[in-house]
Amino acid sequence: MTRPLIEVRDVGRVFRVRSGLLGQPKRVVAVDGVSLALMPGEVMGVVGESGCGKSTLAKIILGLLEPSEGEVLIDGRKLSGMGRRERAQLIQPVFQDPFSSLNPRRRVRDIVALPLAAQGGISSAEVKSRVDRMLERVGLDPSMGERLPAQLSGGQRQRVAIARALVMRPRIVVCDEPTSALDVSVQAQILNLLAELRREFGLSYLFISHNLAVVEHVASEVAVMYLGRIVERNDAESLFRDPRHPYTKALLASVLTPEPGLGIPETGLGETMPDPANVPPGCRFHPRCPVAIERCAQETPSTQKGDSGLVECHLAAPA
Amino acid sequence: MSRWRSWGRNWGLWLGAFIVGFTLFVAIFAPMVATQDPFAQDLSRRLVPPSWMEGGRPQHFLGTDGLGRDYFARLVYGARISMLIGIATVVTSGIIGIALGVVGGFFGGRIDDVILFTITARLSIPLILVALAVVSLVGSSLTVVVATLGLLLWDRFAVVARVATMQVRTLDYVAAAWSAGCSQPYIVMREILPNILSPLAVVATLEMALAILLEAALSFLGLGVPPPLPSWGLMIAEAKDYMFFNPWVIMVPGMSLFVLVFGINLLGDGLRDLLRTGRVA
After folding, report:
1. Which CATH number fits domain B2-276: 3.40.50.20, 1.10.3720.10, 2.30.260.10, 3.90.800.10?
2. ipTM of this predicted complex?
3. What is the DSSP string of chain A?
4. Window B:164-193, CB contacts with A under 8 Å
5. CA of B199, closest CA in chain A: separation in Å?
6. Which end of chain A, N or C, is more open, meaning fewer C-beta atoms within 10 Å of its C-beta?
């Protein structure tokens, strides 16, 4: 069996948020006991609504945040013990907002060259040729290297961000909602580019999104997060064909269809938003669950592993 | 549409830049601008009025002061003192304040608590009293004034740099630089510092105007630049004895001080508007 490129073991992250001068600091559980593994060449999609902890998980895997508990292994080695240069060679990010992910004061060329500059010891001619090649590969003319980010469109900026992520030839790219800040017409271009680059460079993606259609398009395996936990995980095809967890079912039902006659779909989730500062007892999904029974409010469901996936629900069997 | 608006916004910037630039030019080339000696006394020619007034002499463009020294030369050499104090104070206090603010904003936590306490402690120190104490301990000189102001006026730099750093630190391009494997000093110097400079440029103009005014105030009180150096504040102090019969002796340095501080503030306002609209990339 091959070794997973990313192995997340029981990772949790708790933020303490001060409320007022004398208020008790609140414990906000952003990520709680998450385990997952990304195999080489795979694309793991992580879906969930805003505030479910998917971006916090991405930051932990990138080494930008320390986990409160658990550990992350990258290519079999502990992330926490890795040097910054070594880590940069393995894993790189593409962020959501291409307007805040590029330093507005630096030229595109210097932005893309940043990972090479951080490694040091690469001649400037070598850096220039690698940056030019990478710009060309993501569909930008090398002459754009002289521009500032403000002179580029959103799609071009995201291409610059992708070029920066790939210039070092990492093995993993963590894409945190890479298309949700873009126009619909540009989204497809960026997704296709990411798919092409994955095949060409043999990359593995951790692909975070709230958009199920996007995840279905790119992911080979999908993890569904709710209030900091992975409630269901399966290979993409089975998950979309046969969702087990009521939350996954609701998410799939909520996808907007292009038929206007159908209107906005009914999810059965109710109006309340989940609050990570106040996680419900028992199954954390039970207040919004359309099929909850009494047991759900009292007893935390255990993780049930099936042939290909896992699910956390009293009422569902794993696939 | 935006052309008219930007011109309307920019006239202050250009006027301020002209006033500050002109004063700087005069200060640098003082020996060429003023041909007379600002220290040479001539008691036979005391309180000569400016050349365009009745009794004025062509060789004393702005007349002479109570000791018969050429007023134009003293004004020009006084600009040197003002600009020197303004710039030296801004450089000293800017380095201290920006370093403290960036460190506090970047690292946060305990370090930030200590720095915030230092800023608060500094804000509770009355400037004039400290200057008084320093002068009575070590005596007054130009160096003492610059050192006192420079070591005290960093609070606004620190406050602004700290808040701006806290904002920029959370942006994705800083996260991308971490992920790219950049070191902490690199991220502070290349990713954060260039992006907090615009609010700091505005603070610099404010502090420069404040430093020049404070020097004038200290010199007026006899705690600043010692005579016979020609400082504008000192000129105002020396002129106050004659102001009822020879009002121009107090108006010349007073107006100069007003115009210079006004110009620096115009420059600061203009810079703020220019940088806020993001046209300087």
Report:
1. 1.10.3720.10
2. 0.86
3. -PPPSEEEEEEEEEEEE--TTTSPPEEEEEEEEEEEEE-TT-EEEEE--TTSSHHHHHHHHTTSS--SEEEEEETTEESTT--HHHHHHHEEEE-S-TTTSS-TTS-HHHHHHHHHHHH----HHHHHHHHHHHHHHTT--GGGGGS-GGGS-HHHHHHHHHHHHHTT--SEEEEESTTTTS-HHHHHHHHHHHHHHHHHHT-EEEEEES-HHHHHHH-SEEEEEETTEEEEEEEHHHHHHS--SHHHHHHHHTPPPS-GGG-SPP-S--SPPP-TTSPPSSSTTGGG-TT--HHHHHSPPPPEE-SS-EE--TT----
4. 171-173, 175-183, 186, 190-191
5. 15
6. N
